[in-house]
Amino acid sequence: MAENDLYSVLSSHGIRPTQQRISVYKYLLSHPVHPSADTIYRALSQEFPVFSRTTIYNTLNSLEKSGLVRSINIQHDEQRFDTTTEDHGHFLCIECNEITDFDITRGVLITLCPQGYENIRGDVFITGFCPKCKEKR
User: Fold this and answer.
1) Structure confidence by residue, pLDDT tens digits, 2-27
2) Interstrand relation of 88-93 and 78-82 (parallel, antiparallel or unpaired)
3) I need a labelling partner for 131 at 20 to 30 A (CA). Which of 8, 43, 49, 96 fits?
């Protein structure tokens, strides 16, 4: 996505498009591997040494509140970020730690929800071995 487009997207979601915010969002869009805040910080601090971890966390928080990013917690100690904000599932390979998206329909989520409850957001996580790691075993 071009920088002008990123500027417009952030503005339209109520986020002031600073260089830091544009860079974080651009990184997320170009790295759909569900990076952590620390991964983003390490990647961007090489190009922008003035970025702080606080800037990264604050930007991710703003992006999530605006609905542009979704946080996921698959592993106990690490929050990851995803630019696919509609309901879908995540598969975590327990060997290589790669997270892969998979489709899940709203209808499936509704049937999984206990009767009488209202589903707002569905997080489906499956762990196991990806095809590459399964083959190695």
Assistant:
1) 878 999 999 999 999 999 999 999 99
2) unpaired
3) 43
